């Protein structure tokens, strides 16, 4: 479904990105509208698939997940069966926050959030016991400089 996005829709989306937990009244006030039109626009944007899952962002470090690894994977396997098995292995591991298939020398990059290096090694050992990979390089993030889920509307 194709939906036309206007300036008011963009303001609503920006408010939802900024704080998805705010009330309809607050969003309406911020965008200069009333509650019912804002609700109708949000429903339209959900129906169109522009607004997806609603969730809350948690502080990983406050919950004990202090280590963030970026895992670079090269494989010599490119068959559909291997890819399906690899994708299933990633989906079954909650430590994997993001996974991307890349162009270039590296085939995949994963963002893996764990408690510490020992927990990463456990993740790594489990992954390579399920799927064969040619080369794995793990890079430990020393400091997160910027992280956002907000799109530039």
UniProtKB/TrEMBL annotation:
<keyword id="KW-0804">Transcription</keyword>
<keyword id="KW-0238">DNA-binding</keyword>
<dbReference type="InterPro" id="IPR019885">
    <property type="entry name" value="Tscrpt_reg_HTH_AsnC-type_CS"/>
</dbReference>
<dbReference type="GO" id="GO:0005829">
    <property type="term" value="C:cytosol"/>
</dbReference>
<dbReference type="GO" id="GO:0006355">
    <property type="term" value="P:regulation of DNA-templated transcription"/>
</dbReference>
<dbReference type="InterPro" id="IPR019888">
    <property type="entry name" value="Tscrpt_reg_AsnC-like"/>
</dbReference>
<dbReference type="InterPro" id="IPR011991">
    <property type="entry name" value="ArsR-like_HTH"/>
</dbReference>
<dbReference type="Pfam" id="PF13412">
    <property type="entry name" value="HTH_24"/>
</dbReference>
<dbReference type="InterPro" id="IPR011008">
    <property type="entry name" value="Dimeric_a/b-barrel"/>
</dbReference>
<dbReference type="InterPro" id="IPR036388">
    <property type="entry name" value="WH-like_DNA-bd_sf"/>
</dbReference>
<dbReference type="GO" id="GO:0043565">
    <property type="term" value="F:sequence-specific DNA binding"/>
</dbReference>
<dbReference type="Pfam" id="PF01037">
    <property type="entry name" value="AsnC_trans_reg"/>
</dbReference>
<dbReference type="InterPro" id="IPR000485">
    <property type="entry name" value="AsnC-type_HTH_dom"/>
</dbReference>
<dbReference type="InterPro" id="IPR036390">
    <property type="entry name" value="WH_DNA-bd_sf"/>
</dbReference>
<keyword id="KW-0805">Transcription regulation</keyword>
<dbReference type="InterPro" id="IPR019887">
    <property type="entry name" value="Tscrpt_reg_AsnC/Lrp_C"/>
</dbReference>
<dbReference type="GO" id="GO:0043200">
    <property type="term" value="P:response to amino acid"/>
</dbReference>
<feature type="domain" description="HTH asnC-type">
    <location>
        <begin position="5"/>
        <end position="66"/>
    </location>
</feature>
<protein>
    <submittedName>
        <fullName>Transcriptional regulator, AsnC family</fullName>
    </submittedName>
</protein>
